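Help! Submission page says 'invalid entity' but I think these are all valid:
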Amino acid sequence: MTLPDHPSLDDYRGQISEMAAQGLAAIGDAPDLDALEAARVAYLGDRRGRMLEFQRALGAIARDAKPEAGRLFNTVKRQLESALDERRARLGRGAGGYTPPADLTMPARPQWTGARHPVTLVIEEIAAIFRELGFTIALGPEVETEWYNFGALNFPANHPAMDLHDTLYVQDDVLLRTHTSPVQVRTLQRFAPPIRILAPGNVYRRDFFDASHAPMFAQIEGLCVDEGVSFVDLKATLGHFARRFFGSTRARFRPSYFPFTEPSAEMDVECRLCRGAGCAACKGTGWMEILGSGMVHPAVLEAAGVDSEKYTGWAFGMGPARIAMQRYGVTDIRVFYDSDVRFLEQIAE
Amino acid sequence: MNVSYEWLRAFVPFEETPAQLRELITTHAATVDDLVHLRADLADIVVARVVEEGPHPDSDHLHVTRVDDGSGELLDVVCGAANVTAGKLYPFARVGVTIPTGITLEKRKIRGQTSNGMLCSARELKLGDDHAGIMELSVDVPPGTPLLRALPLSDMQFVVDVLPNRPDLLSHLGVAREVSAATGKPLALPALPGEAPVWGEAPHVRHEGTTAGVTVRVDHALAPRYMGLVIKGVKVGPSPEWLVKRLESVGSRSINNVVDASNYVLHEVGQPTHAFDLARLAGATVQVRAARKGEKIVTLDGVERALDETVTVIADAERAHAIAGVMGGRDSEVTDATTDLFLEVAVFDARRTRTGRKRVGLSTDASYRFERGVDFALPPMALERLARLIMAVAGGQVAGPPVDVVEQVPVPRAVTVRSSRVAKVLGARVPSVDAAARLTAIGFTVDAEEGEGELTVVAPSWRADIVREIDVIEEIARLKGYDWFPTEIRPFRPGTPPDDPIWVQSDRVRETLVSLGLLEARPMPFTKGDGASRFVRVANPLAEDEPYLRRELLDTLARRAEDNLAHLQGNLRLFEIGSAFEPTGAAMPREIVRVGVLMMGDRHPEHFASARGQRYDEWDAKAVAERAARAAHPAADIALVPADGGWLWRVHAGGRDVGGVRHVALDAPVWAAPAFGVEIDLAEMPNADVAPAGQNAHGTAPGPVGRHWPQYRPVPTMPSAEFDLALLVPAGVTSAQVEASIRAASGELLERLQLFDQYTGQGVPEGMRSLAWRLTLRHPERTLRDKEIEGRRSKILSVLDQELHVRARTS
């Protein structure tokens, strides 16, 4: 049966439906892939497929019937194609309509992997441990007043203690904070004790940018203030942190000096490279410096309007970048700032 | 500060080894940063045992030996010493080792016999003049032990990190005091050669006094105490060996006997002193005064320095001869021609010394101590030791009693220390008797009340840092040893501050961007700016080419991208969460925490089954902006509004402008893909004062942070109907307008509207584009009928035609 030269819409509809039924049957009944390919050529083939006849007829059909005929043609073509795909899938594999690729040694389709910065990872790991002990996160501005950065923290004016804080100034009494400790004062002024906070953030020193120094680096600060908080709590909490963070290890505390804590203590953990035997990395001491800490100086509580007779507290500060350097085997701190994707992607792995 | 082990032992008869002493000083007083062997040139020499020994076949004086150097293998070594004996231990230098004389040993043949190293004589190791034979060792150590560990060969130097609150530790006396307290061994000043000088009383005088005809005038604001003494008839020359060695042991070079004596006293008791050539001081006058503006001095280092009134000088009747507490002047320097000395032993004002030495750009051993504070009571003792030492090593005689110009001797303050407070701060009860004994051991005077109540404590003159009760509590903890305190976690109350909302926000944004495959950067916020007042400027920047703080994170990310491109990395997807700064006219700038994203290059890593060459475009950036904005502002409606002025879109959150998306212009090579950037505000960081100094703002703290949770809608149970609309859209009509019309015309049945195609070209009239949407309609309670769907479709088309002249595409 063939179409007339100028088919009516009814002719077209009748014949294409019939052809479609035959085609679907041929495809659905094809016993194997060869038979299926033969059916494809017969109905959808580029040169002699039966659909070609109906495609040509579209040009000859009456103008007002054209859109409807076109829709019919497209619908049938899509039906045949999907039947073909489905049958091909069914024949090609066992159950489920799926054919595995012939060469399974070919590589997986890769995706870009995202990553937190290594310094962020260290901050988050530290925060996670302190969160278990009831600490929350506090933040503060990077451009600070001299009072929050020094005055409220009991720094004597024009004193050698300031030599350890070579400062970048914006104005006479406005500066880039040299440590995260101003957040202690802001928090003490804002919230009534009990206080248990961690303050991560960027701090600035007027240091040249070389393999082990940067004018900006991350710091993480901790502060705990309540009635009855003592040096024993400081030792116990920070010792707990050291064991959780570095694995089973010994920690030691030795005298230090920060204007805003007293007593002040530096915490060391056993050197992980030599296990305390003494090596080049720990300058033969067997210990690695981890953090500075101490009991909050009464003057700091007083500056923040907190009763220093009633409340006591302890605080600590540490540099996550140093730890990140050890962790990831980075020997030049500048790598952390360069933002070279070849480095950042290594962390993403 | 450098401290010598042997010198310390001259103060305290301790038995600790250098390593033990290091531990002791570190845990009780100040951290020992390093322990330096003063004979590091012997570090590679080991102890070795000669196992066999026999004559050299071709020599009558050489010996062929087999040596056990601990390596597990016996070495053949040829030795020329007559005293080499099998079974004995000798210092041994392996092949490759450089011995103190500078020779590096090689493996070589000596008259046909191979020699792998050398058995050493004392002279070869610079341990003596004995060259008669190799150095026989009578120690009991295994072969391979470093020689320095086997023998007490020389002094060790401790590098002590003395922190600014403990200037009393800047001397051997100070460190020895702590060692004495920690070991329980007695402390005594080392014996000095010669006789103690004898002089009558040196009464305190104010402002002015004389010694041996020299008038001393002092401005006490500059020097609270100034002692002077004249010694006549010295013979300047080299110092004796012991004095040279002492100074060497702390890294100080010998100059001449007088200067060395002054340096010795500085390191011994911590008192900087200065010797002037008396003949060079005009008018037999010494005065301590502020320098005059424009006054100049040539200091001992030969540099001419301009002074002003912030600098204190020591002057004669005419001109300045020293920068007080910092450095002497060249004109009155002690030289070989000097016979008469004026000795200065003073306490200069700490703050002025600091200001002055910064003004002239100098830091010396003396200024280091003065700006930290020198013991007010120290000068008489230091002067006596200095005079005795000079007379012992350079001769001469004291010309008369010293002058001691003092304004007022400070009265020691008593500090009351409550035992209850000690226990409260330290968390453990240190018995008062114990605390009192430990404080007494380092020079405190302690009055203990009956029982456990209070201690009345007077700090020694060298501990100006002890002012409050807490200062004494620290001393007690330190002297007891931090190790002593228990390590037990005690119950605690949760704190009142909630997580900072900006942290919560940042965390959510970071999580979102990482899940999208982006890499976090943490660069520095300095930028070259544009010289305008739009930027916050650092007054004393490190790098003059980057003196500003950024206004935009994209500014920083663009520079980081260019750096990557320079390394031929063109596939970038960086983000940062950080602060941007804007000047406000007030002292404090605005500080805004933002997220910035920069993306360029391949959208996916290459794969054989993926389409190639797909690069990030503006639509990817738009998507990232939407995701980031939603994470940053979860409760707000997010809209990306087409914009101009360099921005493709502005991001609106709840109607507020919070950021934008733009193409980022880079200084990029030709092969680089276009870069797109997103910058969105998270929040402004509060930076106003919370409360005035000494006050708080408790009770005004914000409540819990507002949270947002998406609300549940029942999952549909009825089937949906889908159809496509291919539309011809005239120029000037936006897709958003078309969508708005479709939504309005479709009513509540429209569940989803998806733009899936854009086409221009053949079949589409000039000036138009074809856009195709897929519509999903659904009724919540029943299946939609074909007629309903068709009706809806017609209605949409008619509305589009009327409102926007948008029609269905028919071919």
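Support: the input was valid. A stray whitespace character was the problem, and the output above is from the cleaned input. Chain A has a mean pLDDT of 90.
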